[in-house]
Amino acid sequence: MNASAAKTESRDKPWLFRTYAGHSTAAASNALYKTNLAKGQTGLSVAFDLPTQTGYDSDHPLSKGEVGKVGVPVSHLGDMETLFAQIPLDQMNTSMTINATAPWLLALYIACAEKQGLSRDSLSGTTQNDLIKEYLSRGTYIFPPRQSMRLITDIIAFTYTQIPKWNPMNVCSYHLQEAGATPVQELAYALATAIAVLDSLKEAGQVPDRDFARVVGRISFFVNAGVRFVTELCKMRAFTRLWDEICRERYGVEEEKYRRFRYGVQVNSLGLTEQQPENNVYRILLEMMAVVLSKDARARAVQLPAWNEAMGLPRAWDQQWSLRLQQIVAFETDLLEYGDIFNGSVVIEAKVEELMQEAREELARIEEMGGAVAAVESSYMKGKLVESAAKRFRDIESGDLTVIGVNKHTETEQSPLTSGGDGGYMKIDSQAEAEQISRLNEWREKRNHDQVTKTLQDLQTAAREGKNIMECSIACAHAGVTTGEWGQALREIFGEYRAPTGVGRASATSNDINSLKEVRKKLDLVSTKLGRRAKILVGKPGLDGHSNGAEQIAVRARDAGFEVVYEGIRLTPAQIVNAALEEDVHIVGLSILSGSHGPLVTEVISRLKDAGLSNIPVVVGGIIPPEDAATLLKAGVAAVYTPKDFDLTSILADIVNILDTTSAPP
């Protein structure tokens, strides 16, 4: 077929243009949304801060330092109304990256629309609502897996009748890749999650059999695309075919439109580098091409990270640059004028078949375990991700995986993009948290407390009796209930959960042992000096659930010969200091990627001093700007590591030297 014959009769519509945005306050985020929409963005993608994501109010002790840092704080209906002020929700397609509190944020969104005078069926958008991947990667879960599954199905059963244009779930493989998933693992674990949800929905009986195919058709996916362009493109074609196969064979869905693999994408943030960050622009472009070039597997919505996200929050100009990249590809090129340009490619077809076969095999293993929930509870999937991430770290260290500017071609000129007074990224207003707490207190004072009490009691009754909680949650929203109150009401019914870390399942390779030989030798000498085996506490203070780095340090420290204490995510500084005291550790390592390192680290150091443990050195890792690193060092931190410090063996050697020079026997 020649090129002209392959050309379509009319130009295809482009995908939705989005940027993932939200910071500081609802008012500041609203201004950013309106600015981006005026620049040609066609959909919203809301980033919520960690207290909102984990069901806490902004003034909860665990929220300290986290308010407005990685997204917008939404504590009640007033915040939601401010967030969408002068944005007509019936004309907007809104994606909300929210999981444990998805029923609540959707309830607030519906209540906000109703306050605008809009009907529920006029709304369109997506709630991510994928709790399974939260246990594996991002860590914003609250409740145990089976109770979380029940809340997922409540949203699905509610939306398909009340908000028929809404996607009630994004099965999210994006964060699986960020946690180390290979393409096969991303395929298998995402599809296993979708199967678990649909099976649970059938068992719950909230959807009649006659409507089940229509509900299947509302399930969407949110994927990742890395820089290995051909593999990622083939992965998306494999996703499309495997989903069609599952819908047809497992669920008997006959209508093709209900079997379509509908997905949005944010391209890879894991591969963005702090070193030579201008190179990230090329990475982002190549990653986007993997999900838009193949028409038969093209994304429905695309949001791109900004070039500087390995350093800090993007500014409005940085987001505009990413938006313009999408618009140039969609409107200036001839991409949307042709059919699928890869059909008939022997190379592409062979790779797609290979990925599909390996994914089917992994799906079969998960099925034998009892499905995705069982594979979470047993730590099978988490352990596999930790192993895959460990391999990636090893390959970068050894040079087997080339990353330009990091382990090859590291010589560079000074970048004009980072030489300005702001360092090349946005800094959050230090007063934003206090102002948010003040507004929250004012909100509590003005509402009808009897109505709040009644709606929360109704919510707990519905949860206890197994009824759908959505209508009760919407009533809570209108009554003025806060995010923390909604979360606490359900914590009292469902309990809380601490997921397996997967660290114990990761095994060292012979290469790991060889690379650590000198570190192990030095650590043996230090341990002799201390009178017992050196012990490190790896801690995750605050609400940041991105545990990849902490897990890899814990695994590598164990392989180097340390005794390792790692209790997972979401700990208060008080809990970390208490663990240091009870476990009698020699050094504390803190991992924080949410930008809340300042208040959390200084509180840990202060509490260590109060507990008589000021002799224990503290090292810190995270996305920490140079000026913040200097402040932490001045406050008593022994060393600061950022994404540029990719060599874990060198970090461990450094930690052993710190321990040798600063720690005395207890």
From TrEMBL:
<keyword id="KW-0170">Cobalt</keyword>
<protein>
    <submittedName>
        <fullName>Protein meaA</fullName>
    </submittedName>
</protein>
<dbReference type="InterPro" id="IPR016176">
    <property type="entry name" value="Cbl-dep_enz_cat"/>
</dbReference>
<dbReference type="Pfam" id="PF02310">
    <property type="entry name" value="B12-binding"/>
</dbReference>
<feature type="domain" description="B12-binding">
    <location>
        <begin position="533"/>
        <end position="662"/>
    </location>
</feature>
<dbReference type="InterPro" id="IPR006098">
    <property type="entry name" value="MMCoA_mutase_a_cat"/>
</dbReference>
<keyword id="KW-0413">Isomerase</keyword>
<keyword id="KW-0479">Metal-binding</keyword>
<dbReference type="InterPro" id="IPR006158">
    <property type="entry name" value="Cobalamin-bd"/>
</dbReference>
<dbReference type="InterPro" id="IPR006159">
    <property type="entry name" value="Acid_CoA_mut_C"/>
</dbReference>
<comment type="similarity">
    <text>Belongs to the methylmalonyl-CoA mutase family.</text>
</comment>
<keyword id="KW-0846">Cobalamin</keyword>
<dbReference type="InterPro" id="IPR006099">
    <property type="entry name" value="MeMalonylCoA_mutase_a/b_cat"/>
</dbReference>
<dbReference type="InterPro" id="IPR036724">
    <property type="entry name" value="Cobalamin-bd_sf"/>
</dbReference>
<dbReference type="Pfam" id="PF01642">
    <property type="entry name" value="MM_CoA_mutase"/>
</dbReference>
